[in-house]
Amino acid sequence: MIQTDSLTKRHGDIVAVDDVTIELGDGLTAIIGPNGAGKSTLLCSIGRLIRADAGRVVVGGLDVATTRSRDLARRLAVLRQENHLPIRLSVEELVGFGRFPHGGNGRSVHDRARIENALDLLGLEPVRGRFLDELSGGQRQRAFVAMALAQDTDYLLLDEPLNNLDPRHAVELMRLLTRLVTQRDLRIVVVLHDLNVAARYADEVVAMREGRVVAQGSVEQVITVEQLSDLFETPARVAEVEGRRIVLWE
Amino acid sequence: MLVTALATASVLVGVAELDRFVLLASRLPRTAALVLTGAAMAVTGLIMQLLTRNRFVEPTTTGAGDAASFVLLMLLLTTPGLPLAGKAAVATLGALVGVFGFLALARRIPVRSSVLVPVIGIMYGGVIGAVTTFIAYRTELLQELLSWSVGDFSGILRGRYEMLYLAAAAALVAWVAADRFTVAALGEDTARGLGLDSRGVLLLGVTIVAVVTGIVSVTTGLVPFLGLVVPNLVSRMIGDHMRRAVPLVALLGAALVLGCDLIGRLVRFPFEIPISIVMGIVGGVTFLWLLLGPASQPGRASRPAARPVPVGRRRG
Ligand SMILES: Nc1ncnc2c1ncn2[C@@H]1O[C@H](COP(=O)(O)OP(=O)(O)O)[C@@H](O)[C@H]1O
Ligand SMILES: [Mg+2]
To answer: Residue A50 CA: which ligand is closest?
Structure first.
């Protein structure tokens, strides 16, 4: 379970995350909201990539501010919105560093199995030997997700992982995430730009605006005309197609 | 293979008739010094590049060498006659402060201007170097100054170079800790996400760079370009995974120094051209070729791949 308690983060005058106290359950949680709502800041604060100004974050019983970073890295993997690799590595080498928190050098039988599994799950077999700077944005994105999976954690935080992905790979990734939730009992928090994707795959939706959590609940509770029109300050329509909610804008 | 061949040639070439004494007292030490210096300095270049996430830095262009020379000069002025090991220790401390000074400066450069990092390094080193040169000039110690900052292997004799094994050992430590350096180079956030102790890695890396710079300064003198050219060449060939890159970097570094030294000894035989001059030409041309050369795909090693301290602007 992930809990935040009065979490606050300021950037100068801007309060990016404003006194957020939430509890995120198991399964797949989607964070939605307009640009600048503080989604990334919240996610990165939970993943201790950003140090909050006030408040507490507890992930699986560990206080992220006081737990040793390496111990945390075995429980929680976090992937930023923009992933720029400053050095030249092959896909396989990058994914291999997912094993870094577990010590060793990524060459043990268990490590190898984890790496192969992650490459396989993200469909990276064909490009495993290629350098990342020679790949498309979507392939690179998948390589980073694979690294996070190789980390073999209980918690996975992803910030807009569908960026750069074509529909096929976006759908495949979301299916993979839901599969990981049921099969490996992984708890996943993912910032999603596409509300239809959130409506289709999320177990729980958290809506943010101006640094605050304005709604939290099931898809049925949060993906509604009133909530969305309010959240995005744009009249929304919600249709049902084959039993799924589809969001349309006026 | 290449290294063995070059090393053999290096041992065989010389003015004096090759006998047992010359072999043991001069030729072998010289060849060993070349190999050790070449390997260690090339590896320090790689470390600096991974720590700054910038392809265009190495110890001699970021103030390490200049700071070492500066404190050596001060030492010579205040307490002359210290043994070689003492000098090396002092030079190491100087290099340590010098590199940390550079990193503190580099940290202030905005992410978008990462191309400026090498420029800042050269200017920073230039300031220290200018002050040092001025003092050396006034105290008539320019000759000594040159011996530290400009590599010269002609005077290497048994008993005067063995400390270089320590420098090579420092480079070996870098190999053992290689994965940490690579993770550090993945970017600040990725490194933290993987639970890396960034400060520890920085301290280790800078210490290794300083130890090598300090020892090489007082034994053979620094060789320019080496730390720049070799890691870039290796990056082109096999990428930046440090555990894989270190052996190749060390070997190529040794080969390049051996080769340049041989050229310097053969071109005007029986006279010698200092290795720094040969290295300057060979290294400079190689580097230009790397930058402009045939395989200059975008996003390759030819680009300043990096940001010293990624702050990462986030937008929705
Ligand atoms: N490094 C930063 N420096 C200054 N302001 C920032 C920084 N990161 C985020 N912000 C600001 O904080 C607010 C929330 O940003 P963010 O969490 O990235 O929003 P979201 O991911 O929901 O679009 C925005 O107003 C943004 O401009
Ligand atoms: Mg964001």
So the answer is: 1
